[in-house]
Amino acid sequence: MEGFPLSLAVNGREHEFADRLVSYSGVQDAATGRPDTAPAAVAVVGLGYVGLPTVVEFRSKHIEVTGIDASSSRLDAILEGDVELAESDRALLSSELESGGIRVTTDSALLGAAEAVVICVPTPVGADDTPELSALRRACVDVAEHARAGQTVILTSTSYAGTTRDLLLGPLRERGFEVGRDIHVAFSAERIDPGNPDHRQQDTPRVVGGVTESCSKRAASVINCVTDSVFLVSSPEAAELTKLYENVFRAVTLAVANEFAEVCRELSLDPIEVTLAAGTKPYGFLGGFPGPGVGGHCIPCDPYYLLWQLRDRGSRAPLLEQVMHEIRQRPQQVVRRVDELLREHGQRSERPGVLLIGASYKVGVADLRESPALPILSGLVDAGIEVGYHDPLVPRLELPDGTELVSRQHPDEEKWDLVLIHTVHPGVDYDWVIDYPLVLDATYRFDRVPHRLLL
Predict the structure, then answer these.
(1) pLDDT score of 231
(2) Does the pLDDT of residue 36 top 70, yes or no?
(3) Which of 25, 342, 398, 417 would you label with 165, given CA atoms 20 to 30 Å apart?
(4) Phi/psi of residue 208, each to 5°?
(5) What are phi and psi of 91, to 5 degrees?
(6) How many CA atoms lie within 13 A of 125 on its CB side?
């Protein structure tokens, strides 16, 4: 593994560990770009933010793909092109749906026709921060029910360590399959970064852990179709915990970044400047940028799978518990800062108006999953503040109490006491914000307004 850039803060001696990684090397066909052992037909279960790009990537390697989703409305959206994909992927999806290279269905009976099955269903957490595994359980039941000898089954949904064995091995063995001989089972967590063209799926390494060595190799040959770099670990549990560690680390980093931003404000310093300066050190520092909170499916949710599993075993991870508490509280810190600024500027005698810029959790995507904007808007309403939002990617949203809001199409023509910068999408005109005297920048990077105040 000489030359592979490990991302470790171990005093610049990452190369000493490179030989611990086991790389899978498949021979690729020059014409198709797929491994010579790649399956001719793949079924992808779950067509959301992970499953649909996975379908497109498989098809780009000239593999027949069947996408299966329990939601008929989701299938309608896919057929109409109302999907969250890069423009090139959207075009490929459209043409392949028309030609039949990709087909989408709710019929899980078609699973039996595939040589490989990839499970990509969501694994959220409930209101009490416990794993919501119903969709994953149903998917695994369907896959096991329609499995046939010779198939390779790969679970990619993030979950607790042991999920692959618990939800797939038992049902498959009950049907008489010997895993590792009749059928091959592995875990390989997705690593898709929605809306980020710099992190293409085919360029992002994947980790595969099979139930047996032959399971690992079979699964790696499938995953090698969607990425050029595959690494093998000793078991599904090692691969499952790898994914959790990735997102736990990110959660810790963001919690530290947010707290350090508070330190910088106390000392009248710019946290972005300080972070970038610290990042010039070539070893021992892996930083992150502060913001209004943490959104998306991964970081606000995935660590709870580990905490839940540890509690079930009578164990704890106190640092992680505190980190997740701080992440959960971050939107309320934003609300308090807004209230503080309104009071400082004499805007709390009447019902003030606050406009939130950008509601999605991430730049360039129309994704509201776990977006900090939702609890921020709710908190402002609870504080007696009139709220509105402007996001051309999110035409409407619903707050936790059921209140519906519609994106303001012409916010520059309205009067607002404070403008709160939450998410800044590329290609959108925000120059009008400079005309508002009170602007709170929760991204710490909206420096086109010289008089902005930082969170």
Answers:
(1) 95
(2) no
(3) 25
(4) -125, 130
(5) -65, -40
(6) 22
Element (H, E) at 209: strand 206-210
62 conformational bin, left if phi > 0, alpha if psi -120 to 50, beta if neither: left
Nearest to 429 by CA among 445, 442, 410, 415: 410
CA distances from 243 to 216, 355, 380 (A): 17, 37, 35
Number of domains present in the structure of the chain: 2
Domain limits at 418? 320-454
Which residues are 116's β-sheet partners? 42, 152
CATH number at 393 reads: 3.40.50.720
Report the SS3 class of residue 64: strand
Residues 6+ apart with CB under 8 A from 279: 285, 287
pLDDT tier at 284 (50, 70, 90 boundaries)?
confident
The pair of structure tokens assigned to 288 is 């992150």
Active site residue 298: yes
> What does DSSP say about strands 396-398 and 404-406: parallel, antiparallel, or unpaired?
antiparallel
Q: Report whether pLDDT(2) > 70.
A: no
220 near 154, Cβ under 8 Å?
no
CA distance 345 to 388: 20
- Asked if residue 327 and residue 211 are part of one domain, the reply reads no
At residue 24, the 3 state secondary structure works out as strand
Q: Reduced to 3 states, what is the DSSP secondary structure of residue 68?
A: strand
Q: What is the structure's pLDDT at 28?
A: 64
Confidence grade of residue 29 (pLDDT, cut at 50, 70, 90): low
**Residue 446: per-residue pLDDT:** 97
Whether the predicted pLDDT of 413 surpasses 80: yes
The predicted-structure confidence for 188-201, as pLDDT tens digits, reads as follows 999 988 878 888 99
